């Protein structure tokens, strides 16, 4: 039996969705975020030393990191929801499987941290300094990097219905979190393919079952 250690409002929602798409048997251990810090509870460190989610237990193994978990589950199910290694779409699939966390999630976390810095309580004389620092990061790096990444996703979704090509794959699942996060920040008014993609994934029965089992799914902004 596969056990998913699932943190509310987190990247682990994608693991539940993947398992639903695969038709796998699994159980969920639910964890709540700290109400003050929004961080994962200390109980997760009993599962994995880093105390992060998602974490999956299967056949005596403890597997962490979303990408590693998803690749493991796809392999355990005979390569379902992935192109064959000799298929023309395979390298495109691999790109999205790694870019989701390596590029897209990373930039979204940076944006989240800057937003929280702007909103953090501090002495009135420190506010202008903090705002100047966060604005400097946005101007020098964040804004143009984020635009480039999501413009690229928009362009790729203009070429095919799904990110790796014409067939739905695990790449669409792993990319859902950064794309949903991007939309939640109100950044998609000038895009048409990303919102259409999100509508398609939200309509999938497996996605809806995952949300039902995982609990209410709200993105941390």
Describe the structure.
By secondary structure, this protein is an alpha+beta fold. It has 2 domains: 80 residues, Glutaredoxin, CATH 3.40.30.10; 115 residues, Up-down Bundle (Glutathione S-transferase Yfyf (Class Pi), Chain A, domain 2), CATH 1.20.1050. It is 54% helix and 9% strand. Strands 2-1-3-4 form a 4-stranded mixed beta sheet, with helices on one face. β1, α1 and β2 form a beta-alpha-beta unit. α1 runs parallel beside α2 and α3 packs parallel to α5. It is globular. The two termini are 34 Å apart. The mean pLDDT is 94.
What are the main properties of this structure?
9% strand, alpha+beta, four-stranded mixed β-sheet, 221 residues, 4 strands, 2 domains
